[in-house]
Structure formats: structure tokens, C-alpha cells
Automatic annotation (TrEMBL):
It comes from Luteolibacter soli. Coiled coil: none annotated. This is VOC family protein. Residues 7-130 form the VOC domain. CDD domains: VOC_like. Gene3D superfamilies: 3.30.720.110, 3.30.720.120.
Length: 150
């Protein structure tokens, strides 16, 4: 028996949201999330749910303030990065589903084309496609030039 169950990786994030059922729907429409299962209370509040985005699993639940489980304020939750085959299409899909655009897809000096959105549940997302390989030396030089405003 493996210490890590099949379908999981070493780290599995767990999101706390306000309105778990709506969040599950949003993540499906915005990022193509596939619902693995949900465990609702009789009231409909989500005790526990799991989705996959690409090959990664994410857990999700509604807030439980009595247990210290609170959703982040909009735009203040952790940042997730999703690699996709077409970042421009993925960005438009997320925005059409209700994500707030923060940065449109842009070619970056480290070799990715990436854009950023905030979801309605407090979390931040970078969508990216790797478009070119960049050597460590070229990346460091480009980062220095960027930091200096060149």
C-alpha cells in the first residue's frame, strides 16, 4: 500500500470558500475542474469536496467559523498557477466564468506566456503556457534588467 493514495500528490491544497456549491460550479466553468466528489450537509453547505484541475487535486469546503475555517478576503488568498496549452483561451474562459482579470496574457522573460485572474472566492490564479526555454544566465540577466526598469 502506498502512503499517498492514488490520484493525489505529496501536497494537496484545501480551499475554504463562501458558498461551496457555487465555487464548485465556478471552478468547473473557469478552469475545467472535474468534481471527484462532494459531501454536503443536509443544509447544502459543503463539508468536503474534491476537484481535479489537470492532473492536480484540490479539496474544498465551506467556511466553518466555529472551527477557525474562514475564506480569504477577495484577492488575498493564496496564488495558484495552472499550466495550460492555450493561455489566451484559458484566460478568456476564466473571465467569461466570472473571474476578475488582473493581468492579460503576456510573454514573460522566463519563457512563459502568463495572465492573472482573481476568482470570486478570494483566491488568485496565474494561467500560463510555457512558450520558450530560457537559460538560467539569460533569465538572470532579464530579471536584472526588468528590476532596473530596462
Amino acid at each position: 500500500m502506498s502512503a499517498i493514495p492514488q490520484g493525489y500528490h505529496s501536497i494537496t491544497p484545501s480551499l475554504t470558500v463562501r458558498d461551496g456549491a457555487a465555487a464548485l460550479d465556478f471552478y468547473a466553468r473557469a478552469f475545467g475542474a472535474v468534481e471527484v466528489f462532494r459531501m454536503p450537509e443536509p443544509s447544502g453547505k459543503i463539508m468536503h469536496a474534491e476537484i481535479t484541475i489537470g492532473d492536480s487535486r484540490i479539496m474544498l469546503s465551506d467556511e466553518y467559523p466555529d472551527y477557525g475555517s474562514l475564506a480569504p478576503e477577495p484577492g488575498k488568498g493564496c496564488l495558484f498557477m495552472i499550466y495550460v496549452s492555450d493561455v489566451d483561451a484559458a484566460f478568456e474562459q476564466a473571465v467569461a466564468a466570472g473571474a476578475t482579470p488582473v493581468q492579460p496574457p503576456t510573454d514573460m522573460f522566463w519563457g512563459d506566456r502568463s495572465g492573472k485572474v482573481h476568482d470570486p472566492y478570494g483566491y488568485r490564479w496565474t494561467l500560463a503556457s510555457h512558450v520558450r526555454d530560457v537559460s538560467q544566465e539569460d533569465m538572470e540577466a532579464a530579471a536584472k534588467a526588468w528590476a532596473e526598469g530596462s
